[in-house]
Design a protein that fits this description.
There is one protein chain. By secondary structure, the protein is mainly alpha-helical. The chain has two domains: 1-80, no CATH class; 84-334, no CATH class. It has helices spanning 9-18, 21-45, 52-75, 87-111, 119-127, 129-159, 167-204, 207-212, 225-232, 238-270, 280-306, 311-314, 317-342. The longest helix has 38 residues, at 167-204. The radius of gyration is 24 Å and the shape is flat.
Length: 343
């Protein structure tokens, strides 16, 4: 009696479009072979071919296979360590990781771990799943702007020493990412924020409440920002109002520029890798630490700028610190490379 199916065949077809030949040979094929071996071994023990335990075996095996494919496709782990990814590959990996982290952020909003009040859960209970998906999609662009720079850092770090002689690829990827983040931050995010705010008010209160809401700074595009901020803060003294407007304008420019700072820091750190690539754990730890430091500096810079510190210096302080760190790491690597070569 033949078995109903052999798992992993379709997964292999998909993986061939995402992974290179070496990654397929050394990572994906062994993972799928383990899945098929466990499935065959388990079904041979069963009188009934498919039971709930068989389903558990399948889910566990598919999870391992998809994790291997994702690790190769997004971070390049499993590919030859001496092959440098192109700028397009770096962009693809950065966008893929940022999109994945954005989805995780929406889940955390839903369960209330971030965002405080659990708005997503309330919408799901009162308006249903379709409304929840709509609101999550509208919330995603603002999260994507904050996550794209750390994702680029992870993509560059994962490439490791293979990018040592290909700094131009990192620069191209960082500039393209910066331009995309600028368009997203300047025009797309404000429109999405405004729609998000109205839909939340519509689902949680009444349609009339959403129409009565006033637009805040986060709902103003870059071209609307100066006049809109002057109108919103008309009750403040002129000097304080000017400080708020300058702070918001510089913030809209500094967030996309962070992609360049993160990319250059990632390249400088990857040059210190002696051979091969950074491990997944080391890459994650570096990205987490750098992102937290940058975020704390950015929040402090915004606070100082709104209290009278020159916005051009205060808002750009976080990016400046990363750029100086990248320069220091690169100079240190450059000084040590002749000694390591001669020793």
């Amino acid at each position: 009696m033949s078995r109903p199916f052999l798992p992993g065949i379709r997964l292999l077809r998909i993986a061939r479009h995402l992974c290179g030949p070496r990654a397929m040979e050394h990572v994906v094929h062994p993972a799928v072979a383990d899945l098929q071996h466990e499935f065959v071994e388990w079904t041979d023990r069963q009188i009934v071919r498919l039971t709930w335990r068989t389903a558990v075996v399948l889910l566990r095996g598919y999870w391992a296979c998809w994790a291997a494919v994702t690790r190769v496709w997004l971070l390049g782990f499993g590919e030859p360590p001496d092959v440098a990814p192109s700028a397009a590959t770096l962009l693809r990996r950065a966008l893929g990781m940022a999109s994945g982290l954005t989805i995780v952020a929406q889940v955390l909003y839903f369960i209330g771990l971030i965002g405080g009040v659990g708005i997503f859960e309330r919408i799901w209970r009162q308006a249903g799943g379709v409304a929840l998906v709509e609101v999550a999609i509208l919330k995603a662009p603002s999260d994507l702007v904050m996550l794209i720079a750390p994702a680029l850092l992870a993509a560059v770090l994962a490439a490791g020493a293979s990018l040592r002689q290909h700094g131009r690829r990192v620069l191209v990827a960082a500039v393209v990412t910066m331009v995309g983040a600028f368009v997203l931050s300047a025009w797309i995010v404000p429109v999405a924020n405004d729609a998000f705010r109205h839909r939340v008010a519509h689902y949680l209160t009444s349609p009339a409440a959403g129409k009565a809401l006033r637009s805040g700074p986060n709902e103003l595009s870059l071209t609307e920002l100066p006049a809109g901020m002057e109108r919103l803060y008309a009750h403040l003294p002129a000097e304080r109002r000017s400080s708020f407007v300058s702070t918001e304008l510089h913030l809209r420019l500094a967030l996309p520029a962070a992609c360049l700072a993160f990319g250059l820091l990632g390249w400088a750190l990857s040059c210190r890798v002696q051979n091969g690539r950074c491990g997944a754990l080391r890459t994650g730890a570096i990205v987490l630490v750098v992102s937290l430091v940058w975020l704390l500096l950015l929040v402090a810079s915004v606070h100082w700028a709104r209290r009278g510190v020159t916005p051009a210096f205060g808002i750009w302080g976080a990016n400046l610190v990363l750029a100086l760190a990248a320069t220091a790491v690169w100079l240190s690597t450059r000084r040590s490379s002749p000694r390591s070569a001669t020793g």
